[in-house]
């Protein structure tokens, strides 16, 4: 019996095609790398490893993937595992050193890198480590080893960036890009430089060129959010990072800490005490922003403690050290701290790279402010005031300088722009504004400032200003009222003398027709409160004049 078919039920090739169609398409490892999907690449490698189909160097590739995912600890474990094997390539020592570098373990990175063979990567790593150690001699020796190749020039540009030589870094990036148009990521590096130079619009414009090609780049979107924070608001920046968090995988570690840090900044310090302290040794800006948070909470001592041991190298670090020293110096009256603040402000403001920048001019203004050279303060503040028209802290300082130089009309206008309740309740603000009112012949407004804070401990200095400035300006009625309160608070005989002179001055002003007659009733009341015989003598003189001029004092 012949059971064979004369013709197969399905052609073998056709059958093969159907089987192939039914198989799900499996991405190749190199495809994952090409699309920067390091999570997918690592998953594939792990699958191959557990199924027994992995190549011999699978752990090296896994370490590579985890490094690019930002999981440096896992990468470190894998590289160490590789080094335990016989015939492991000496290049792995350099790769492990790079991992140590990203973990902030600079001493371990230095020691490990020297175990590897000399190579361009080793030179670049040692170049960066020399910068981290602040070893200028070693830095220059490795600088001389660098060649005119892309990788070495990128390292040189990054060191320029870290040393705040942003224009030099931009020049290198642009030169590389001219010869390598496919290196679109250079736009991100250039955008970072412009961001550091406070050219946020320019940074955003260049960044857009990269985001057109790679809209899911974490680094680029984070920088875009930072630009929005400077140009628009924290809400806009927060929204941009929120969109980013929705896109990335929860297992993706790269930049997670940076995003947490930036969200705290965008949300005006919300969660600062929980998020920032663990990041101090991870993200350099975390220390600065934690100090800024404490300053905003008026915890100057804690801000000073955070900054005091920091070896300030960047302009931002030096400026913040100046600010905390100035604040602690003004709070405690410490000349040492105030002198340190002057020194730090001058260091930034007088540097060639910062002298013509907005922060640089602010620093010189602050230096002269502490030195009480207010004409010089105004020279610098006038040059940048257009950038701070709505900045209330700037207006507060600008108004103080105007007051100190006798520009009372302009100072009053500046102070009136301030709506911040914290500044309005500051005794310096009240004292300066009161002086402006008096000098601009509005003593009643100065007196109303005192009435608003009558029970405050800061009212005593304000009374001094009202009493003495009103007397000087011939505004004797409000001078008398201020001296009267001072006399009741303190038995110092000078207050009686001021009050007596002010009351006589009011009588003279009434006689000359420069004051209303009815205010003599208040003057009589003030004089009788004292119980001083000299006061009764003045009262009799007032009553006599009132009787002659048919004025009823209703005493």
In short:
The protein has 555 residues and is an all-alpha fold. It has helices at residues 12-22, 29-34, 38-51, 58-68, 72-83, 91-102, 106-113, 120-133, 136-145, 150-162, 166-179, 186-196, 200-211, 218-231, 234-247, 256-266, 272-275, 284-296, 300-307, 315-332, 335-349, 358-370, 374-384, 392-404, 408-416, 421-424, 427-439, 443-452, 459-472, 476-489, 493-511, 519-530, 533-548.
Please provide a written account of the structure.
- The chain is mainly alpha-helical and 555 residues long.
- Among the domains are: 147-268, Tetratricopeptide repeat domain (Serine Threonine Protein Phosphatase 5, Tetratricopeptide repeat); 490-555.
- It has 33 helices and no strands.
- The protein has helices at 12-22, 29-34, 38-51, 58-68, 72-83, 91-102, 106-113, 120-133, 136-145, 150-162, 166-179, 186-196, 200-211, 218-231, 234-247, 256-266, 272-275, 284-296, 300-307, 315-332, 335-349, 358-370, 374-384, 392-404, 408-416, 421-424, 427-439, 443-452, 459-472, 476-489, 493-511, 519-530, 533-548.
- The termini are far apart.
- Mean pLDDT is 87; it is low at 1-26.
Largest sheet: none
Low-pLDDT windows of residues: 1-26
Note the total helix count.
33
Mean pLDDT level: 87
């Amino acid at each position: 019996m012949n059971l064979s078919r004369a013709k197969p039920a399905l052609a073998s090739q056709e059958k093969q095609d159907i089987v192939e169609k039914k198989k799900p398409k499996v991405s190749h490892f190199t495809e994952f790398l090409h699309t920067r999907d390091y999570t997918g690449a690592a998953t594939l490698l792990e699958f191959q490893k557990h199924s027994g189909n992995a190549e011999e160097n699978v752990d090296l590739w896994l370490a590579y993937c985890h490094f690019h995912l930002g999981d440096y600890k896992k990468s470190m474990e894998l590289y160490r595992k590789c080094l335990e094997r016989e015939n492991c390539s000496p290049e792995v020592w350099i790769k492990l050193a790079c991992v140590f570098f990203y973990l902030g373990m600079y001493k371990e990175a230095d020691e490990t890198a020297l175990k590897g063979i000399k190579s361009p990567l080793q030179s670049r790593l040692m170049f960066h480590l020399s910068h981290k150690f602040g070893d200028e001699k070693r830095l220059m020796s490795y600088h001389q080893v660098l060649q005119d190749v892309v990788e070495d020039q990128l390292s040189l540009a990054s060191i320029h960036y870290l040393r705040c030589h942003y224009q030099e870094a931009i020049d290198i990036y642009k030169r590389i890009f001219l010869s390598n148009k496919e290196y679109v990521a250079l736009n991100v590096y250039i955008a970072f430089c412009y961001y550091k130079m406070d050219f946020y619009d320019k940074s955003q414009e260049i960044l857009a060129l990269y985001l057109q090609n790679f809209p899911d780049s974490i680094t680029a979107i984070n920088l875009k959010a930072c630009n929005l924070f400077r140009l628009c608001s924290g809400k806009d920046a927060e929204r941009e990072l929120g969109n980013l968090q929705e896109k990335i995988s929860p297992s993706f570690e790269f930049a997670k800490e940076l995003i947490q840090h930036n969200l705290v900044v965008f949300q005006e310090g919300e969660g600062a005490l929980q998020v920032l302290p663990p990041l101090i040794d991870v993200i350099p800006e975390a220390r600065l922003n934690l100090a800024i948070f404490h300053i905003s909470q008026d915890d100057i001592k804690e801000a000073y403690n955070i900054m005091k041991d920091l070896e300030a190298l960047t302009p931002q670090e030096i400026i913040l050290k100046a600010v905390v020293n100035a604040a602690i110096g003004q709070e405690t009256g410490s000349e040492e701290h105030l002198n340190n603040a002057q020194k730090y402000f001058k260091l930034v403001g007088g540097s060639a790279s910062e002298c013509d920048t907005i922060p640089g001019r602010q620093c010189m203004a602050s230096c002269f402010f502490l030195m009480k050279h207010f004409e010089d303060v105004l020279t610098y503040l006038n040059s940048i005031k257009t950038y701070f028209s709505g900045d209330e802290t700037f207006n507060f300082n600008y108004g103080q300088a105007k007051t100190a130089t006798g520009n009372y009309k302009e100072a009053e206008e500046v102070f009136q722009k301030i709506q911040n309740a914290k500044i309005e309740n500051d005794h310096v603000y009240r004292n300066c504004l009161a002086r402006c009112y008096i000098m601009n012949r509005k003593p009643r407004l100065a007196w109303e400032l005192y009435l608003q804070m009558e029970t405050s401990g800061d009212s005593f200095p304000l009374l001094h200003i009202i009493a003495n400035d009103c007397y000087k300006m011939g505004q004797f009625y409000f001078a008398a009222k201020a001296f009267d309160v001072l006399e009741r608070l303190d038995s110092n005989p000078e207050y009686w003398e001021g009050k007596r002179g002010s009351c006589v001055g009011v009588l003279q002003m009434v006689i000359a027709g420069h004051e209303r007659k009815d205010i003599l009733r208040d003057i009589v009341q003030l004089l009788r409160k004292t119980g001083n015989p000299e006061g009764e003598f003045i009262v009799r003189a007032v009553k006599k004049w009132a009787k002659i001029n048919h004025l009823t004092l209703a005493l």
